[in-house]
Design a protein that fits this description.
The protein is 34% helix and 27% strand. The chain is an alpha/beta fold. The strands form four sheets. Strands 13-12-11-14-15-16 form a six-stranded mixed beta sheet, sandwiched between helices. The protein has three domains: 112 residues, Sandwich (Immunoglobulin-like); 182 residues, Rossmann fold, CATH 3.40.50; 30 residues, no CATH class. The chain is elongated.
Length: 402
C-alpha cells in the first residue's frame, strides 16, 4: 500500500522539484546578473516548461481507431492493421510510441508490434502494422498503448485504448487428388475414389434434398409430384459417410494432424461425401454428419480453435463417448501416437463400421512397435496408415518400413 502511494506521488514530486529549479535559476540570474547567468536560465527554461506542460497534457483523450484489411485468413498469411490517431490541439509531441497488444500465441509468433512516430504539431497521424506469419487459431487484438516523454527524461506519459478485435486464422489445408487418396485407401473401402465420385447404378428410392447433393442426383419427376426437391437414394449410399476423429493429445505432430484433418475434410466435402467431426477432448459436441460448404466451414472453425490437451487423447474419447464409434459410417481416426493398447481400446468399441487409423510420424522410418500395432489393427479388421510429418502438400506419403 505504502509503496504504491509513493509511486503515485513521485511524478508530482518531480514537478515540484522542476518548478523549484526554475525559480532558483531565475533568482540566481536576478541577483548574480551577467550574460552567463541569464544564458543558463533561458537555456533551461524551454526544457522545463515543456516537461511541465507534458506532465499535464491529456494523452488519454486522443481518439484512436484500428482497421484491419481482413479478419479471416489462413495459417502463415499476414494482415495489415492501420491505426489512426487524432487529437484536438497541436501541443508538440517529440515522439510517440505506438504498441499493439497481442494475446496468446499471436504475441509470441508475430514480430512487428510497436513503432515510433514523430507527430510534432500535427493533429492527426497514422501508422500501419504488418502482422506476419499468423498461427492457426482465434486470436484477439486487445488494446493500443501510446507512450511519449519529454526531452530530459523526467516524465513519461502512457495511455491504453481498449479496442478488442477478433482475428480467425483458418488451418492450412491442401487439395489432395484422387490419385493421392488411392494410395491412402484400399480399393473397396469407404472413402475410395469410386465411392467419392458416387458412380452408382442402382437406385433404391428417393429422399429430400440435403446440402452437398449433386445436381445429377435430382429426381425431377418426384420433385414435380411432391413440389419439393427430391434426390435419388442409392443402395450403397449408407456406407459412404465419413466421421473424422482428431486425437487432441499434446504431441510434436499435433499441428500436422490438424493440417491433415482439414485437408481430408476439404477433399471429401468437395466431392460430395457427407462428413462429421469430433475432437477427442470433446470440449464441444461432435458435429453431425452433413455435407456442403457450410459443413466445411464448421469443421475448419473447430480445427482453427482446437488446442493440444494432455487429457484429450483418443483413449478418453473412447471411454466416455462410445457413441462416436457406434455410428454406421466409415471412421477416420487421426493421431500422432499409436500403440498396442490404443488398438485394443478402439477394437473393443468397434462394431461393423470401417475404421482407418492415420498416424502422423515425425520420422520416415517406423519403429518395431509401430509395425506391431499396424499388424494388430489389421487382424482386428482396421487399417493403419503412417504418414510423414509435413509432406501433405506433395501428396499422402505413406512411411515405409525398412
Amino acid at each position: 500500500m505504502m509503496k504504491s502511494l509513493v509511486e503515485k506521488m513521485r511524478p508530482y514530486a518531480k514537478v515540484v522539484v522542476l518548478i523549484s529549479l526554475v525559480v532558483l535559476a531565475f533568482g540566481f540570474a536576478m541577483f548574480q546578473g551577467g550574460f552567463l547567468s541569464w544564458f543558463l536560465f533561458y537555456t533551461f527554461l524551454p526544457f522545463a516548461l515543456y516537461s511541465i506542460g507534458l506532465f499535464f497534457y491529456p494523452i488519454h483523450k486522443f481518439t484512436v481507431t484500428r482497421s484491419l484489411d481482413k479478419t479471416e485468413l489462413r495459417t502463415g498469411e499476414s494482415i495489415e492493421a492501420r491505426i489512426e490517431i487524432t487529437r484536438k490541439d497541436r501541443f508538440p509531441l517529440l515522439f510517440l510510441l505506438v504498441e499493439e497488444e497481442l494475446n496468446g500465441r499471436l504475441g509470441k509468433n508475430t514480430s512487428m508490434k510497436k513503432a515510433f512516430i514523430f507527430p510534432w504539431f500535427r493533429k492527426s497521424f497514422s501508422i500501419t502494422f504488418l502482422l506476419h506469419n499468423l498461427p492457426r487459431g482465434e486470436h484477439g487484438l486487445s488494446a493500443i498503448r501510446l507512450k511519449t516523454g519529454d526531452m530530459i527524461g523526467l516524465f513519461e506519459k502512457e495511455a491504453n485504448y481498449d479496442l478488442p478485435k477478433k482475428v480467425l486464422v483458418w488451418p492450412a489445408y491442401y487439395d489432395l487428388s484422387y490419385k493421392q487418396l488411392e494410395n491412402f485407401f484400399n480399393q473397396g473401402e469407404a472413402g475410395s475414389v469410386k465411392k467419392m465420385q458416387r458412380e452408382h447404378s442402382i437406385v433404391s428410392g428417393v429422399r429430400e434434398y440435403q446440402p452437398g447433393d449433386q445436381m445429377s442426383w435430382i429426381n425431377w419427376k418426384a420433385t414435380a409430384n411432391k413440389n419439393a426437391i427430391m434426390t435419388k437414394e442409392f443402395e450403397e449410399q449408407k456406407s459412404h459417410d465419413v466421421y473424422l476423429v482428431l486425437d487432441e493429445a499434446s504431441s510434436e505432430s499435433f499441428e500436422d494432424s490438424v493440417v491433415f484433418a482439414a485437408s481430408f475434410a476439404h477433399v471429401l466435402l468437395k466431392k460430395g461425401i457427407l462428413v462429421g467431426y469430433a475432437g477427442s477432448a470433446m470440449h464441444e459436441a461432435p458435429l453431425p454428419i452433413r455435407g456442403g460448404d457450410g459443413q466445411l466451414q464448421r469443421i475448419l472453425y473447430r480445427l482453427a480453435k482446437t488446442e493440444a490437451d494432455e487429457k484429450g487423447s483418443l483413449s478418453s474419447l473412447l471411454g466416455s463417448h462410445q457413441t462416436v464409434l457406434s455410428q454406421n459410417v466409415a471412421i477416420i481416426l487421426i493421431t500422432s501416437h499409436l500403440d498396442q493398447r490404443m488398438v485394443e481400446q478402439i477394437s473393443a468399441y468397434k462394431m461393423n463400421q470401417s475404421i482407418t487409423i492415420v498416424c502422423i510420424k515425425k520420422e520416415g522410418q517406423l519403429a518395431a512397435e509401430d509395425l506391431f500395432a499396424k499388424r494388430s489393427a489389421y487382424i482386428r479388421g482396421m487399417r493403419v496408415s503412417y504418414l510423414e510429418q509435413g509432406h501433405f502438400e506433395s501428396g499422402l506419403v505413406e512411411v515405409m518400413a525398412q
